[in-house]
Known about the structure:
Helix content: 40-55%
Structural class: alpha+beta
Amino acid sequence: MAKTIIDFQEWFKASQEADNEWRIKAKENLRFYIGKQWDASDIAKLNREKRPALTINKIFPLINFLHGYIIQNSQDISVINRKGATKDEAEVLTECIKHVIDTSDGEDEVVKVFLDGIKTGRGFLSGRVDYTDDPINGDLVLERFNPLRIYPDPRSEKYDLSDCEFICKVCWRTVDWVKQEFPDKVDEINVSQIKDISKISFSVGERNKYEESRGLLGGLNSSQVLVEEYWYKTTEPVFYVITGIGLMQFRTREEVSDFIARLSQTGNGGVLGDIQVLERRRNVLNLATVVNDVILQDVSKPLGEFNSFPIIPYYPYRLDRDDEVAEDNTLGIIDNIKDLQKEINKRRSQQLHIINTMSHTGWFNPKMGGANKRQLELFGSTPGVVIEYDAIKPEPIIPKPPSQAHLLLEEKASMDIKENTGINPDLLGYRAERGEPGIVIQMRQQQGMITIEGVVRNFIQTKKILGKALIGLITKSGLYSEQEILNIIDLGDTQEEQNRKLQAVKNILNNNQVKKFDVVVATQPSSPTQRIFNFYKLTELIRAGIPIPPNILIKASDVPYQEEILQYIKTTTEMGGSVAPPVV
């Protein structure tokens, strides 16, 4: 059943209402990250009282530490074969995934998603087809998408969003872009009458600001409109044929009949005797593009037979949605430390105010025989001032020093931030003693990482979801031809290897065959310190008598001319020579 504009509007409204609390909180988190940590009303009050409003941003370095940790510990995606698939096919897919990530700066985009997640509680990686260089088939591009512009099905409970009925992406586009992309809809779009702003408002304050400064069209200027992309799923029948040669899938009964007829022509009676036909239903991916109340397009299977959402989520912490507990079920690193940050800012500002006022506390000046009152008011705290008095010496008011409890509470707030985030001094390396070996520091930092293992583990889960999505896009979307894949992969040195790889490419592009692959995400440290640490661990194994191959040891090191050394080892081995295992 075709969707109507009412369906899309109801979806958007349901998602917006369910996530409104998160959106308000996420925008506050972003302000805290960049140092905007005071309420406007508090700033105005302090300004009236001529008091300082300091911002001692403890959040910024903590978030940047986690960001840097992920950058220095890159994670490679590898494919392993399962039912119906071969090792060669898995290797081909691994190379294709690496090619997609490398050519679209995918690793940088994925790291940005991680940064979004730890700041706001949510991050999203989006896949799209770019026709700039390939106008026929297009190129697959990975890019980070603003989490505030993603509206998922609020009834979703699975981390990977696979149980969503829909996911909506919104973005500003120029009117000219809309007219170029959808020329047949130009007459239906009357830009001057676009007045519905409810869909772009995340709070009452934003709505007011939008109405006052952006007019009815919105966006960066009056020539832009809000474009909504609805990715949603329907179902269709699929037929599975089980024979003695394996499991095949077909879209229609006619295809099943043709397949059985071809088997009959081969005369393979044993196979025919084992035939079973099963009918099931599978998801179908759809894409609708909407501007205001006009459906610009509603396309079934925009990515071929690929039927998963091209939107990959990342949640540092995600709870089961429960209305009795909280409307918002996602958390970032900043959420639990904002109050502690406010306390630090307030106490430090109070201390500065006390210090500033200590030299201006005033004087005890007798009415009779004291100094000139006006002189004390104007110059009483000026260095080098000369104060004349008649008979009784005026005495300055000695202020009380800041209480020890006040100082201790501020120090405790700083420690509370580290305890709440799990980013403690060990993890940051603050407790290193002079002369302490780097390997000891590394070991303490690894111990500290245990407290935030869940955040990193969820990121690995996100990369697994990405890997599975890329497998589907490579094998089912039609974006890659056989020749394109052959141009990407390493066919090998021998004719046998080349034949196997060629057959593997043909197999993975055969959508009738049912194949199962799994994804493994392995951390590959890229920082010199971490690599040296791993190199030292290998040398310790060699000392213990473990025969580590020389090429493995060379790969783990940062020695110069690494490629030349590895090539020498390979050539020597192929010529029948041997390279003695290293002695440490």
